[in-house]
Amino acid sequence: MKKIVIIGAGGFGREVAWLVERINQVKEEWNIIGFVDDEEGIQGKEVNGYTVVGNIEWLKEQELHVVNAIADPLVKKKVIERLDGSKNTYPVLIDPSVIYSSSVSFGEGSIICAANILTTNIKVGNHVIINLDCTIGHDAIIGDYSTVLPSVNVSGFVETKECVSVGTGSAVIQGVKIGANTVIGAGSVVVKELPANCVAVGAPAKPIKFFE
């Protein structure tokens, strides 16, 4: 079995540990070494049966399979950049319940949680999280480090640039493009292109805040 560690011992990290356990129920593939977390005082403690074995600096010196369970896209990207040059590798984790066609491609380090459906000719970037119960339509492109939160519906030919966060229960209609580093609030309906570096909410979704 291959040794794997999970970055982030919080709620989603625990869910990813469960995802790995579900994969192992179908085929014994992964030996979870534990969690990695920079929170002070948590190293050495047990979380849901797995030990917090170290922090990011510790992980730099290892040669393990690593999955990044940090949902915030910008933080997720910074952590991966800190590990640049290490000998660690980033497998794709797909829950056994996920339905997807052979024309879907997954970038390294991506996490596809339970009850998702991805149809045809979809490109999922590196270190993408697609959380529970989402649908991703044909020819969609989900940019690197993006996070799609639970129960999101993404229609065909949608493109998100890198580091986009799509809030729980949102819907994105066909052909829409979403700029990098944009946050879409929960329950929003995206019906037209959204610029980069903004927070957008509502139905239809409109930018309410911009940031650098």
Characteristics of this structure?
six-stranded parallel beta sheet, 212 residues, alpha/beta, 24 strands
Number of strands: 24
Distance between the termini: 43 Å
The overall average pLDDT, rounded, is: 98
Strand content: 25-35%
Order of helices and strands: EHEEEHEHEEEEEEEEEEEEEEEEEEE
Assembly classification? single chain
Shape: globular
Radius of gyration: 17 Å
What is the structural class?
alpha/beta
Q: Please give the largest β-sheet.
A: 8 strands, mixed
How are strands sequenced across the largest beta sheet?
A: 6-9-12-15-18-21-23-24
Question: Which percent bin holds the helix content?
Answer: 10-25%
Uncertain runs: none
SS summary, helix count: 3
Task: Summarize it.
The chain is globular and about 45 Å long. 15% of the residues lie in helices and 32% in strands. The chain is an alpha/beta fold and 212 residues long.
Describe this structure in words.
This protein has helices spanning 11-26, 56-60, 73-82; strands at residues 2-7, 30-36, 46-47, 50-54, 65-68, 93-94, 99-100, 105-106, 111-112, 117-118, 123-124, 129-130, 135-136, 141-142, 147-148, 153-154, 159-160, 165-166, 171-172, 177-178, 183-184, 189-190, 198-201, 206-210. It is an alpha/beta fold. It has an 8-stranded mixed sheet, covered by helices on one side. A 6-stranded parallel sheet has the order 7-10-13-16-19-22, with no helix packed on it. The protein has a 5-stranded mixed sheet with strand order 3-4-2-1-5, sandwiched between helices. The chain is globular and about 45 Å long. The mean pLDDT is 98.
